Amino acid sequence: MEDIIVPLPVASAGYGPLRPSATEATTPLAIRALVLQSGDVRVAIVSAELLTPPSAMRRSLAGLLQELKVTELLVTATHTHSSMGSYEPSSLFQLGGVGRFRPAASQAVIAATSSALRRAVEALTPVSVELGEGSVPDLIVSRGRDEPQADARLTRLVFRHEQRKVAELSIFSAHPTLAPHKSRTLSGDYPGRYSRTMEEEGGVVLFLQGMVGNARAALPPREGDASSRDALFATLLTHAARGIHPTPVPAEGLAYTRVQVKLPRPDASRLVPVGLHGITENALCHLGPRQAEASRLSLGSASLLFMPAEVTLPAGRLIEDAGGATRVISLTGDYIGYLDSPEHVRNQSGESQLQYFGPELLETFVRAAALTTSSLEGPRPP
Fold it and tell me: Domain boundaries in the chain?
């Protein structure tokens, strides 16, 4: 784990093009890294307390990854809406969520990531893997009436050296929007507080967003003042996590595959008024990504599917089924917006009003999820 040395003042990410400039941070924003190795395959997972995964991260770290012999890199974002911005050179992202690009902000993120990766490689040690899962329906709610259900699972993937916990992947699904909106104070929101509290037991704890697209954290409206809601929620989530007792994963081993997909043409019919469809779609074609990746990481019988979007529950269920996966992980590698079900897209319901592409987007990633199973090499010995 490495704290980001934020070059204050900096844009506060998360709430559209009009955002304040942050001048302080309640808690440090962190980058956490876990490196897994089996044979000549060395996979690095990075969890960044940011709104989106930095799109240029793999390219920026190419030399370091070669030096550290990291063969695959998965960069995920906690999707924290009260985190720092200005780290993203993409004009589309600058307008939509992270503010005007500043090289110093990008360099701060890359420096913290580089340090976290070095620490993770230096800490490589033989481990056993444990998996546990529970349901916390009282802590999550769907964001809209069109899709009444949200993914209430809380999953813990724990790595131990002998009896000592050295790392954990905690997977949950809820937008981190509990910290005060449009504040001049940066915060890691509940994911950052959760990870730091869970790390008191030892090891590094990476927080990963699951089917976050239509999910928000649930707290009673008057429970705590605005400045403490994220801390309260992190306490409740930590308590729930400690009630889940992971058990050993059978047939341990490591396997990884990555599938590149061509994205369909953007569809702005739900994003803007009719008169702006053409110009918006042209801008998305010009500024947005044309390709994306779906990745699968298998650890024995546990497998994770990493997606570059905010995946909703109905979309995530289809992807998990197609890939035979334990969990879908959102916001990995790049950001292509929301990924909702074709039914919601056609009806202009659910979260599809924030989706940049038409109903064929989900079909594209369902096929990709299935391909990750057919092209997956057999698990290698730990």
Answer: 255-374
Query: Rounded to an integer, what distance in angstroms lies between the CA atom of residue 43 and that of residue 23?
Result: 36
Q: What is the average per-residue pLDDT within 159-170?
A: 96
Cα-based angle 264, 14, 211 (whole degrees, multiple of 5): 55
User: Alpha-carbon torsion 237, 25, 2, 44, what sign?
Assistant: positive
Distances in whole angstroms, Cα of residue 328 to Cα of each of 293, 307, 310: 13, 7, 10
CA 382 to chain centre: 26
228: left (phi over 0), alpha (psi -120 to 50) or beta: alpha
Question: Whose CA is closest to 312, among 137, 142, 75, 133?
Answer: 142
Mean pLDDT is lowest, of 133-137, 168-172, 178-182, 219-223, for: 219-223
Q: What are the tokens at 150?
A: 């949200």
User: Exposed (0-12), middle (13-18) or buried (19+): which is 380, by Cβ within 10 Å?
Assistant: middle
Going by the DSSP 8-state scheme, the letter that residue 344 receives in this structure is H
